[in-house]
Design brief:
Radius of gyration of chain A: 14 Å
Radius of gyration of chain B: 20 Å
Helix content of chain B: 40-55%
Oligomer: heterodimer
Structural class of chain B: alpha/beta
Number of strands of chain B: 11
Strand content of chain B: 15-25%
Strand order of the largest sheet of chain B: 3-2-1-4-5-11
Strand content of chain A: 25-35%
Structural class of chain A: alpha/beta
Low-confidence stretches of chain A: none
Shape of chain B: globular
Number of strands of chain A: 7
Largest sheet of chain B: 6 strands, mixed
Helix content of chain A: 10-25%
Low-confidence stretches of chain B: none
Mean pLDDT of chain A: 90
Order of helices and strands of chain B: EEEHHEHEHHEEEHHHHEHEHE
Largest sheet of chain A: 7 strands, mixed
Number of helices of chain B: 11
């Protein structure tokens, strides 16, 4: 487990960019943290660093959005938001089965704590709000 | 030309029959089976439950709609193919594909947001009679999943002018409702409470209001509401109404200001609003007033067509067919159609 402290949005984005560089394709990133913690900010920066050209907007309503990538290994980035889920569903229930465990796909799940049976291989990222600007980010 | 339309993109199963002839649109049947009571207790749509319910309702609903005539006289089948929940979309699509294939009918793949745009045609006969008079039109698309400014140069011709960079407006309403523990869906509850509140009491941020583009951001606004709540120890009924009113005032000010600015810049002939949030009375009132000031016609859908329905899908399909768009599929080709969970209106091809 690694702990990071960021003092502003730019530093959070920097950390996401750094993480993006370590990804090889096939990963599942599981985000947790309260409303307003900055999960979306992190995912947006990560997507940008991975080479997503479009604006990454909140997938809360449709649960997931799929983007094409320009990356050396992966060619798809899937952004999932489980905020609206009730806590009784797994990733297959929301239609993610087609996207898991493929070397060419990177999946980022926000509010992953609302998902049951999260794969053990998931990289867990928790964001805690310390003050309005400061965040504690743990990557596991 | 008779169109049978099927919509199942989220938590509503809907079927409609439309007869289009030139500039006249005659809606035969329009039924919506809402699952809202099922999902209410979970504070949002549960995809697995939604999918199961679509399975139960879709065939009986089509049966009822068609009655004894069955598919006699139907020329086209239309179906929502995205954006939406994949697990919900596939059920309407599987039904539509099967119906089209075995009855040898062409299948029209419709973008759900284009359906919302065409709910304006369904609601305003003047617009249907003389569409060209109102093009180019600027459309403010506002719903649970979308906040976009779209330039519509003609039927089926869309250019994205601006969009939210994070949360959609409807989503912001839902999240504020959840923070205040008001229930789901948040839009109608928050706007109702806002009527009684004092919107000048809390000055919430107007994100990106003075930026030189037409993009929006509502994520920070929700966070500002959260901080306000954290500072208060107890919430009275009046506090809640005031927060709702102040939140709504911030949202509407940004939406309207950017819409009017874009309307002037792109020299449009009319302004329209589309999507679930077009049910918001205050938003309609403000947009109507501001459009009048710059001498532009303002259109909005009738309340019954603001929510998800198949009538609007049928109308969008009708104009797609008239304008020979390439989303009309025949024979075996219907099985190539796949759901597009984030199908962009400005990329209106399948």
């Amino acid at each position: 487990m690694k702990e990071y402290y960021t003092n502003n949005q730019k530093e959070t984005e920097g950390l996401a960019t750094q993480l993006a560089q370590d990804l090889k394709g096939g990963e599942l990133l599981a985000f947790s943290g309260n409303l307003g913690a900055g999960k979306t900010v992190f995912v947006q920066a990560l997507a940008k660093a991975l080479g997503v050209k479009e604006n990454v907007t909140s997938p809360t309503f449709v649960l997931m959005k799929v983007y094409d990538l320009k990356h050396n290994k992966a060619d798809k980035f899937v952004h999932v938001d489980c905020y609206r889920l009730s806590g009784q569903e797994d990733l297959f229930d929301i239609g993610l089965g087609d996207y898991l465990n493929h070397d060419n796909i990177i999946v980022a799940v926000e509010w992953a704590d609302k998902i049951i049976n999260l794969p053990k291989t998931a990289i867990k990222i928790n964001i805690d709000l310390i003050t309005e600007d400061k965040r504690k980010i743990t990557i596991n | 030309m008779k169109v049978l339309a099927i919509e199942s993109s989220c938590d509503e199963t809907a079927i409609a029959l439309l007869e289009g002839k030139g500039n006249s649109l005659k809606l035969g049947k329009n039924v919506v089976y809402s699952q809202i009571d099922i999902h209410k207790k979970y504070g949002g749509v549960v995809p697995e439950l939604a999918a199961r319910k679509h399975v139960d309702t879709i065939i009986p609903l089509i049966d009822d709609t068609l009655a004894k005539n069955k598919l006699k006289g139907i020329d086209y089948v239309a179906v929502t193919s995205g954006p939406g929940l994949v697990t919900s979309l596939i059920l309407g699509m599987a039904t539509a594909k099967t119906l089209a294939f075995i009855n040898n009918l062409p299948l029209v793949a419709v973008n759900h947001m284009e359906g919302h745009v065409y709910s304006n045609w369904l609601s305003n006969t003047g617009l249907a009679k003389n569409s060209n008079k109102y093009f180019p039109a600027l459309i403010l698309v506002v719903s649970g999943g979308h906040t976009e400014l779209v330039l519509m140069k003609g039927h089926g011709e869309y250019t994205l002018i601006g969009q939210t960079l994070d949360d959609a407006v409807g989503e912001a309403y839902d999240k504020v409702a959840k923070l205040l523990d008001l229930g789901y869906p948040g839009g109608p509850i928050v706007s109702k409470l806002a009527e009684k509140g004092d919107g000048s009491l809390h000055i919430f941020p107007r994100p990106m209001i003075d930026k030189a583009n037409y993009n929006f951001s509502f994520s920070g606004l929700k966070t500002a509401v959260l901080y306000t709540l954290e500072k208060k120890k107890q919430l009275s009924k009046k506090d809640i109404s005031d927060i709702c009113a102040s939140f709504q005032e911030a949202v509407i000010e940004v939406l309207v200001k950017k819409t009017i600015k874009a309307a002037l810049k792109y020299n449009v002939k009319s302004i329209m609003i589309a999507g679930g949030v077009s049910a918001n009375i205050e938003l309609k009132k403000t947009l109507s007033r501001e459009s009048k000031k710059i001498n532009l016609s303002f259109f909005y859908p009738k309340l019954e067509y603001t929510g998800d329905n198949a009538a609007m899908i049928a109308v969008a399909a009708y104009y797609n067919i008239l304008n020979k768009k390439d989303n009309v599929l025949q024979g075996n080709k219907v099985f190539d159609l796949e759901p597009h969970s984030n199908w962009q209106l400005s990329k209106n091809k399948i």
